[in-house]
Amino acid sequence: MSSFGEPIGSSVTAADSPAVAEPTVGPGPDEAKVIRREHLALLLRSKTFIAGALILGFWIVCAIFGNLIAPDDPLRTNPVAALQAPSSAHLFGTDTLGRDVLSRVLVGARDILIVAPLATLLATAMGTLLGLVTGYFRGFVDDSLGRLIDAILAVPVVIVGLLSMVALGPSTVTVIFVIAVVFTPVIARTVRAAVLSEVQYEYVAAARLRNERAPYILFGEILPNVMGPVLVEFTVRLGYAIFTIATLSFLGFGIQPPAPDWGLQIYQHYGLISGGYWWPVLFPALAIASLVIGVNLLSDGISQAFER
Amino acid sequence: MTRFIAKRLGLGLITLWLLSVLVFFGTQVLPGDVARRILGPFASPSAVTALNKQLGTDKSVFVQYLNWITGLFHGDLGTSVATRTSVSSIVFPALWHSAKLAILAFIIVVPLGILGGVLAALYEGRFRDRLISVGGLSATTVPEFVWSVVFILVFALWLGILPSTATAPPGSGFLTQIEYLVLPALCLVFVLFGYIARMARAGTIESLEADYTRTAVIKGLPYRTVVRRHVLRNSLLPTIAVVATQAGYLIGGLVAIELVFNYQGIGQVLYRAAIQKDFPVLQSAVLIVGVVYLVATLLADLAYSLLNPRIRFESSS
Amino acid sequence: MSDQRQRQVDAIRRHIGEVENDLVDELVAGRIDRREFLRRGSVLGLSLSSLGVLAGCAAPNVTRVSPPQTKPPKAGGTIRTGIVAPAAALDPIMISDEGGLAVLGQSAQYLVWSDKNLTLRPVLAESWTHDHTGRVWTFKIRRGVSFSDGTPMTAEDVAATFNRLSDPKVGSNALSNFDGVLSKGNTKAIDPYTAQFTLDAPNGNFPYLVSSDNYNSVVLPKNYDGGWDKTFIGTGPWKLESFTPNQGVSYGRNPRYWGQPTVAERSEVTFYAEEQAQTLGILGNQVDVVAHYSVSGGRALITNPDVRTTQFRSSSHRQIHMRTDKEPFADKRVRQAMALLLDRRALVNGLLATKSDYGNDSPFAPVFQSTNQSVRQRQLNVAMAKQLLEAAGKGAGFSTQLLTLTHFELPDLAQVVQNDVSVAGINLKLSILDPGSYYGSSKFGTSPWLDSTMGITDYGHRGVPNLLLTAPLSSKGPWNAAHFRNPQYDQLVAHYVAALDLGAQRAAAGKIQELLLDETPVMFPYFYYFLTGARLNVSGVETTAMGHVDLSRAGFA
Amino acid sequence: MSATAPEPTAVQTAPALELRDLEVAYRVRGVWREVLRGVTLSIARNEAYGLVGESGCGKSTAAFAALRYLPRNGRVMSGSILVDGEDLLSMNESQVRQLRVSKVSMVYQNPTAALNPSIRIGDQVAEVYALADGGSDGSDERAREMLSKVQIADPASVMRRYPHQLSGGMNQRVVIAMALATNPSLLILDEPTTGLDATVEGEVLDLIKTLREEFETSLLFITHNLGVMAKMCERMGVLYAGRLVEEGPVADVFDRPSHPYTVGLLRCIPRGGVRKDKETLDTIPGFLPQLGADLPACVFADRCGLAEDICRQQEPPFHRVSEGHCSRCHFYDRAHTLPRTTGAPPVLGESARQEPVLQARGVQKTFHQEGHAIHALNDVEFALKEGETLGLVGESGSGKTTLARLLIGLSPPDEGSVVELDGAQLAPTVSKRERDQVRALQIVFQNPDSALNRRFSIHRILGRALTMLTGQRGEEREEHLRQLAHSVRFDVRLIGARPAQLSGGLKQRVAIARAFAGDPRIVVCDEPTSALDVSVQAAILNLLVELQAKQKVAYLFISHDLGVVRYLSDRIAVLYLGRLMELGPADQVFESPQHPYTEALASAVPTAEGTERERIRLVGEIPSAASPPSGCVFHTRCPRYIGDVCKTEEPELKEVEPGHFWRCHYSAEQLRELQKTPPKPRV
Fold first, then answer.
1. Does CATH number 1.10.3720.10 belong to domain B91-316?
2. pTM for this prediction
3. C48, C195, C44: which is closest to C124 by C-alpha?
């Protein structure tokens, strides 16, 4: 109610009030391109973005051309040559089955870089849908769905993952599904908040005043305006997805052998570090860390650019 | 105020009920036969059927659900089919273990996180900010087991200054227990820091840009005073809520850490229960974790509204 | 040999039965070495004293095995032992896992102890004899033994214990051992210190079934009715101090113990959910002993200077079954080819770091004395494998699923197998389940384990091959995942089980081994050693391949 | 009024504030954009200096520069700022702080946001004293005094409260108290009353006036409202595009504006009770230049009707028009001859049909919050004839907007309320209404930024509206769309642009076009111009009139600006606490006799002529709609309060003159008599 009250009045001097000033742009359709170009320029000037892009880029290359880059077949076991320390022959040493760790780390990027984005994308799609609906139709729908979301959120991610993996049997598809299920509520929350502030805007009322049906208002009118938060949320979630997938693999419920998945490699070898066999653990660990950090730098850069 | 609490409690209960349904029927789809799981693959079928009857795991799902719920109302969490001991005797000690770890971690990370977040906010966009927020976020999203493994490698095995497991020998004193918990707690600190810092940062930036901060500056208050008196007061409120929501993760989300450090926390209980198809433990444990989470968030909301006059008075007037 | 000695020998030989005399002849003839003589003799119930005398007539060329010389440990102290956490309730009747039996063995005891060389030592039984058919076995029960609660132990308790275990209604875990051997009510207490077993069929190896090898058979009070994990009642050297589920047990000396008091003052047993954690535990000096570790989880210990590893052969192994009734393995040539593609050398030296014997695709592990050594060992032979596949019309290779479970090195083994067979264009798709899902109901039709085309299953140690010959391979075997139906085989197995003297057993074994090599329903890649780790200052720990750990003589240097 | 304030005598000491060639720029998306382009002005002691100008002209920037408090992306490029003769730019941080403590302070709009939500009022005020004299203990005491100085009835209790518990007006008093606490030599007021209700605004302005005389403070008063300016200041400056284009004594400037821009501004606002049928409002062609845009030598040349080549080639000097009155225009002497941009008013022929298009009877609206009911609207009734404009005035909480939303069907009225379109009862919510009913009844919202989907092109916004309301498709629709754009004077070439790329005026035109897409019979205008600059406002008002003339559309025109309402409306309805207080022909409502509330309302409005009648003070705050006063809801504040009768019984809405209704116990005659003299203030 309050938001429809008396003139907010701030708009009168909005243009030169000291919170970061925006120009009142005069007419000229090409201005849109200009703004977009300026955004891009800003992105390219942000060091964090560049750094993130480079790291992520590297892993993407590995994911695609891994088998070409890899000095060795990441799957070829050679038990006799097990656990050889890093040497010129094997820069990162070999694992318990005598496989080349370097090759496995390089190729290992593939699974996670397929699974994580897919899962996050799915989660973002479902979460956005849920967020739109709960944010727009308040009342019963919102309440009941809200409760459900709470219920899901009340269980730690790993546990939900664990249960579903045990229930559905470990497989890449399951991983994607699980991550999606687990992240949907979180994203839904963010989107819902964004939607709540959108419906305050009168363009929504205006849409109703020309007899628009709810679906159009949701997807046609509101959705485009909450894409910003959604994008940022996606990049952030991507980081967490990698986190969760790795954890599931580490618990033996994620990506399955013989896939050279990083979390899996750590799971299979972390008991060995005590025996001085640190290489089959450390390198995958570093790989995960670098990828995650890369993604975060990227998302940070993006959100910076759009905040400005 | 009381209205508010009552409302939140009511909602909490509904959520709990939903959770119980989710959990129960969720666990029912887990494959594998309970008695078979207990007796092992090579036990004779007759033995298995006998045990299933004895455990009541041959009844229909709904009957089992009702039994479970009625049990809960009588404070009976059920009996572990794996260890044949009462679930409470397994879950509550584990809960206490996890709590100890969580508390230690909190004591370290909350001040650190807030400090970091506020610093980042004050230097928004500069290097320090990027360092803290990106570094923090990364530390957060690097899986905790990666940290655990690295820390054990360094502190327990190379330097040999800290124990590699978290369970202190029975009857050991307070300090010894702390000593054993330091490493896992450290992992948690790494995992939580970025998260809390991020929130503190957001809140601080928001109130730094608020009009009332401008007023304070224009009053001529020294910058420190402005930050201390006017900014933090408002900016740290949201952080409280966030910290609380982490309780859920801390109690039960730590499977990996607890496994690596062989710590008998609720996380490991859940993990083993899942592996062993120990439904009673699994269901009750998950539910309890849920309760912890909801209570924590409720408390957070209360604290939030108590510290925040806007809510305090609106609900009272 | 001196006349006086010769007289003793004759005196003994006059009292002992036919089978025993054959054994002595074999020894004299040098057909068996002294160690095997002792082992067999113990089974047949010859007293250790007379065995010692008779052993004297062994052929001079036989080398004597001398036990490793370590100076005895000092009394006192608390010995801290890490074991794999018991998977289920601590109920002697139900226990089915290593962790469980390890705990069981601390405070409870068996009639007979089967040591790591599979030699039987009397514990609660002082001696035992059998009739000429080998159907009726009579055990003399030790006097002056009482349970930890003070009640004296008699043959009554023994009888009650075994009738309980063989009662299908109780559904004990030992049923599979007694199935077709001992039925409910056939164990009687003739007098307070004599217990008699009347078997369903003759069985030359029966004493193993009342030994620690049949780990559920600890003697419990006749009125026992559940709740063991409250009391840990038994006749053993240790007495329960405190027990925390999922965490551990601590013991003190049992003041009523009939034998020598324990060396160490106290004993703390810690449960580890993950072998990895256990390894870190001993390296981080959280425990002094790890009762049992695997190469996959404890590789770090093998090379670690602070830890002494003791090892001995066991019959623990992995079975890689192939559905004989289904493509692509219906043709035995394909199965042979698979077995020929396995690089066992790489497995033993790499995967198991040489801590293992070679498997020869039959349950006859080198550790069993009945195993027929004359059967040739199957070797890696890719060329022949390809020919066989060619002949079977699978020259182009094929693709199928390989199922296994997350358990020790099994996933690794699966990956190696996958890799080994790939050279013949065979593409195995791995599917790795958690144990619960893998075994499912353990009934045909509702168990991935028993229904899979190809799968890898873990089999624990057994003192005698009997169960391993029947359950997984005989036509009616409950664990016959290979769906192997071969009347000839069933017949041979029956002969083997009935055979009382070693010669006959070896002969039967030979035939079985040859048949299995030809049919290859199941691949037995290796029988791995039992490894125990202890910190250098600890000695006197005795473990068995079954997973028992006897800490009564363990202490610090 | 200028008589009351001391005439700026020859400055004996340094001026309170002096800006010299001040140039300030903001860095936006990596580019430095000029906001102030060499502003020079000086404010003598005890002088009230006003700064007018439209959005983006740099008013506030100048103000904040005077405190050396620029946004993170702002920077002083050149020039100097002197406060009491001290150079602000050469000071170090602590000196600046001292200056803020003792010499300069500031009050700006949206007071509730300006106070810290989680600190008690008392502490926030006391803080200032604690600061001024190193945390002395008496600060609470002095805070209380100060609060009573700003005419807060019960300072003690207010001090214990939090900002969100006080009304906007009350908070503004607190802010002012804080600002004046340390008796500064310069007080900067940046739109201090924007967003406050008329009556409250009047009070605050009076307060400021009295206080500044008491404290002998110089004022820098920034506003876009010329009326306020006339009321408050002696001298004024007109800012345009970061340039001071005219400066002089307020009276002079208003009488003899000597810069085309000033002339334009003054012509834009409806003054002296002009009506839409008498004359059109003049407008200023073109757009406000955007921040940091390249401008000709004379920054106004592009929009100036008098501009010649010289204006673009050489920058006009600051010509002296008269004593202290200067203009930066080559043709300052004939600035007033600036040609009008708009022609004669359109002919608004009386509609033939007498029966109303829209008929509202017994309209009720009740909100339920945390249990207790709030009666936002109470038995409201009116009729709207074809082609007529009904002005709806009232303060916040009076229910104006609620009524609007309810009519167009965004929120349903209570049971029993009657809203008829052409005699047919309308469904409570829009989704249940016929398409023809929906298209017949449209709205223009206050804030086009909020009302237009910022992601869509204008083409899509209007196109969609046409499709939905008229069902047109394809070329037919395109054709109609072009007509529509043309009818609201929207350049078709901009049809592809997005709202963010358009100026506020253009956006509002689009919003209007959208409302007219389905040839509506009635358009509800909810504060359609209050977010716009005066020059733009004029254009929009003209447009509305023009459209009405063309299409015989009826307006329900909601505004808090009585001037605008009066200009546009045929009849006026006055709402107070959800009740219709007065309803009648525009002129009658504005002339005596009028309802006491209307009387007070009207008297509170400052007019550009500065010749306002004695303002009637309303005591206390607007009661909350949750617990309205008994009897006549206005009795608690009524300046013509009779006695218990007002407390006990609620007056009927009675027809006092033909077509003129009000809700008061007085008769027309009684009030006509009374209103010859201003009421004596109630206590």
1. yes
2. 0.78
3. C195
